Amino acid sequence: MGDVNVSVALNALVQGGDQWFDSKPLNAMSTNENVTGHLSLDEIRQILLPYGGKALTDSQLASLAKYLELLKQWNQTIPLTSIENDTEIVARHFGESIFPGSLLPMSRGRLADVGSGAGFPGLPMKIAFPELQVTLLESNLKKCAFLREVQSTLALSNVEVVRSRYEDFYAAPGSFDFVCSRALGGYKRLLQWSKALLKPDGHVILWLGTEDSNLLTRTRDWNWALPVKIPESRQRILLMGAPKP
């Protein structure tokens, strides 16, 4: 889709934005793209190594590279991300999105990405784990248009883009193996919703600041794994939990 069509189709702010990012520089990462102005597949692979990206194929890396270009193109009209540097986009958005796959078996199953925004974490997870069935829940019409553009361009199967607030989305109890949310907020309500939709052995996966993580680990009715520090970050935490029987 060209810039003119993007401009016509979209004119909305991203809910949540990147406000939860801290300002720590990315260790051992160049902040400059190569002379062509684009990251090579090898450069993308190197950036993703701390997040568990070693197993990604060239085809998967090429999909992420195309996703990056679409994100940058549409971001000229809609502020999908406040991050402008390609290296940081790959690390903060793509890397942090696939990071749970290095800690939890996620090669198969059904995943709900709540408040998907520009597709994080759901779309990078789908690229990294092609057999996942992914439902992207996003209430903003214009962001849904972007998500469908990425899905179509990358020919991603078993991806459902749903324009809805998660509270208004209906699915049968036990429908999902994973419920993910990144910087959404309102976690107590989200946990109540997630508990009803998760399978008995399902997991909720949350990207949080340290304070929110400490609060949620006290939540009753959930078995929480130990919080895991997200690579290249000072204060961001990955928290995973399963509902108690």
List keywords for this structure.
alpha/beta; 245 residues; Rossmann fold
The 3D shape can be described as globular
Q: Could you name the CATH homologous superfamily?
A: Vaccinia Virus protein VP39
Summing up helix and strand content along with how strands pair, one would put the structural category as: alpha/beta
Second rung of CATH, namely the architecture: 3-Layer(aba) Sandwich
Strand fraction: 15-25%
Q: Quick check: average pLDDT?
A: 88
Looking at the structure, the CATH topology is Rossmann fold
Determine the N-to-C terminus distance.
Answer: 47 Å
Q: What string, H for helix and E for strand, traces the elements in order?
A: HHHHEHEHEEHEHEEE
List unreliable stretches of 5+ residues.
1-25, 27-36
Number of helices: 8
CATH class, named: Alpha Beta
Largest sheet: 8 strands, mixed
| Percent range of helical residues | 25-40%
Secondary structure elements and pairings:
Elements: H1 3-9, H2 41-48, H3 58-75, H4 86-98, E1 109-114, H5 122-128, E2 132-138, H6 141-153, E3 159-163, E4 176-182, H7 187-197, E5 198-209, H8 210-216, E6 222-224, E7 228-229, E8 236-243
Parallel strand pairs: 1-2, 1-4, 2-3, 4-5
Antiparallel strand pairs: 5-8, 6-8, 7-8
Helix pairs in contact: 3-6, 4-5
Give a description of the structure:
This protein has 245 residues and is of the alpha/beta class. It has a single domain (30-243), classed as 3-Layer(aba) Sandwich (Rossmann fold), CATH 3.40.50. It has helices at residues 3-9, 41-48, 58-75, 86-98, 122-128, 141-153, 187-197, 210-216; strands at 109-114, 132-138, 159-163, 176-182, 198-209, 222-224, 228-229, 236-243. Strands 1, 2, 3, 4, 5, 6, 7 and 8 form an eight-stranded mixed beta sheet that branches. It is globular and about 50 Å long. It starts with a helix and ends with a strand. The model is unreliable at 1-25 and 27-36 (pLDDT under 50).
